[in-house]
Amino acid sequence: MRRTSLAFLTGFTIAGAAMAQEAIVTQQSPDELLGGWVLGAGVTSVDGDRIGSIDDIIIVVGEGQISAAVISVGGFLGFGAKSIAVDWSELEINWDAREVVLNMSREEMEDADEYVFRDREEMPVPEGGVGDGAMDGGVGEGAMDGGGTVGGN
């Protein structure tokens, strides 16, 4: 019985390690871009006019795909600029985001509607309204109440 249990646990451990290895990415492929290369990249029109820079990206949760780029356009030194979003597929990204071209003119970008951001969702509050300290960094019942315990219980 002990050998069977040990064999089962060993097999379970090896399977778990194999699954963990599948989640690890060891190197970047030539067709992949780093977010840091894209964020802040200047965007030019097909005419060569600089029309803005990529401030953010929009990722579709569940798909893991980038759907749009948020581009800051107009203004001067960041003042008076507005954010617009363009479909990711409309961007021509060259040389690891050293050149980003959009088939729109400066005027079209400045006339585009400003992108409306939604508020970020808050995590649900545990029942009772106060955490027990287990998952909230020790803040909650007993955290600093002088009761001699940290994090409750």
Please sum up the structure shown.
This protein has helices spanning 2-23, 35-38, 106-111; strands at residues 42-45, 50-60, 65-73, 82-87, 91-94, 99-102.
What does this structure look like?
The chain has a domain at 35-111: PRC-barrel domain (SH3 type barrels). Mean pLDDT is 80; it is low at 140-153. It has helices at residues 2-23, 35-38, 106-111, and strands at 42-45, 50-60, 65-73, 82-87, 91-94, 99-102. Helices cover 21% and strands 25% of the residues. It has three helices and six strands. It starts with a helix and ends in a 42-residue tail after the last helix. With 153 residues, it is an alpha+beta fold. Strand 5 (91-94) and strand 6 form a beta hairpin.
Average pLDDT rating: 80
Tally of separate helices: 3
Structural shape: flat
Helix content: 10-25%
Strand content: 15-25%
Indicate the topology.
Elements: H1 2-23, H2 35-38, E1 42-45, E2 50-60, E3 65-73, E4 82-87, E5 91-94, E6 99-102, H3 106-111
Parallel strand pairs: 1-6
Antiparallel strand pairs: 1-2, 2-3, 3-4, 5-6
Defining key terms:
153 residues; alpha+beta; SH3 type barrels; 21% helix
